[in-house]
Amino acid sequence: MAIAKAERLMNLALCLLGTRRPLSKRELRESIEAYLEAGSDDSFNRMFERDKDDLRELGLVIETVENLDGEVGYLARRDSNRLPAITLDAEEAAALGLAAKVWQQARLAGAASGALQKLRAAGLPEDVDPYEAHGALEPRIPVHEVAFEPLMLACRDRRPVVFDYRKATAARPETRQVEPWALECWRGHWYLAGWDRDRGAERVFRLSRITGKVRSRGAAFTAPIPDVVTVRETVASWAGETADRSALIRLRTDAGYPLRAKATAVRELGGGWDELEIPYGHGLDAWLVEFGPDVVVLEPAELRADVVDRLRAVAKG
Q1: Distance between CA atoms of 74 and 77, rounded to whole angstroms?
Q2: What is the tens place of the pLDDT at every residue in 195-234?
Q3: Of 5, 48, 104, 167, which sees the most CB atoms within 10 A?
């Protein structure tokens, strides 16, 4: 359905841009195959009005002209729909080059490269190579999760999805029905924020815990999308970033560098172990479990108990 509509919109836009005189509804219907297949005049009229509104929302300037006989016609003048010349200085070109180098995922890398080629043709300074500017900087956003691309497209197209998700405390994955809002990368991991239909609440999911395929659903969203989606803030609270307490752990030497970066105090114990004091907030137990046998929680007692429970649940699975 989405592909058919996109093709119909493209054909309508080409007709309106390619004509030198206004085209009536009758002429447009005879020129576009999808309109010819409309079951009735009412069905065509509704389809045409929606398509015209969609094109205008996308930025196409469509004029409505009435001829001497009172017949209404439509056209999109090229001079009204032509972008002004693009002018970029060296710093702006360098910023675009860095942005294009961020993505390692093949699909996005190709799109970024194509966009830069079009900018070069549109007036990017000839003496500036956006790929080489500030070459010492090599930004990367790694995308290893298979679920990334279908979720990215679902967020863009506002399509609900279904996937199997394994929580850190669960032995087996559970099916989740989610209305996806946004994807964000935080400390090397990708997270999805959206509305969990089964739980009737906002949830954040780590992509590496999604198992199997992400399946799309055709139904519309049932929950409003918030103006601001706080993915990083939510995940940070899990990891204790907003903590007002401290936890004491033992950590193997030369292991757990993310934990060492958070530590407020470190003491060498010898025998291949160090003692760390780290901020303690909601979700710290789930994060510590990821380090497996390299971490031992000393205190507080409730954190130690939570970590042990999670490890036992994983062992049973």
Answers
A1: 10
A2: 999 999 888 898 988 998 999 887 788 888 888 787 777 7
A3: 48
pLDDT in tens, 283-309: 778 788 888 889 999 999 988 998 888
- State the distance between the two ends of the chain, measured CA to CA, in whole angstroms: 41
Strand pairing partners for 296? 250
Q: How far apart are CA 254 and CA 294, in angstroms?
A: 10
- Is beta strand 23-24 parallel, antiparallel or unpaired with respect to 174-186? unpaired
- The pLDDT score that the predictor gives to residue 1 is 47
Q: Report strand pairing: 295-299 vs 23-24.
A: unpaired
Smallest CA-to-CA distance from 204 within 190, 218, 216 is with 190
Determine contact, residues 181/226, Cβ cutoff 8 Å: yes
- Distance of alpha carbon 242 from alpha carbon 187, whole angstroms: 16
Partnered with residue 195 across adjacent β-strands are 179, 202
- How many Å separate Cα 254 from the centre of its chain? 34
Q: How many CA atoms lie within 13 A of 289 on its CB side?
A: 21
List helix spans (H) across 122-180: 148-157
Report the 10 Å Cβ neighbour count for 231: 19
Non-local (6+) Cβ contacts of 313 within 8 A are 169, 170, 171
CA–CA gap between residue 238 and residue 279 (Å, rounded): 11
d(CA 19, CA 13): 10
**What CA–CA distance (Å, rounded) separates 89 from 83?**
18
What is the rounded distance in angstroms from the CA atom of residue 241 to the CA atom of residue 60? Answer: 46
Listed in sequence order, the residues at least 6 apart from 213 whose beta carbon sits closer than 8 Å to its beta carbon are 150, 163
Distance CA 51, CA 288 (A): 52
Would you say 22 and 63 are in contact if contact means Cβ atoms under 8 Å apart? yes
**Which residue in this structure is represented by tokens 């002004």?**
84
Token pair of 288, please? 């510590």
Which has more pLDDT, 151 or 58?
151
What is the distance between the alpha carbons of residues 196 and 208, in angstroms, rounded to a whole number? 18
Whether residue 300 has a cis bond before it, omega within 30° of 0:
yes
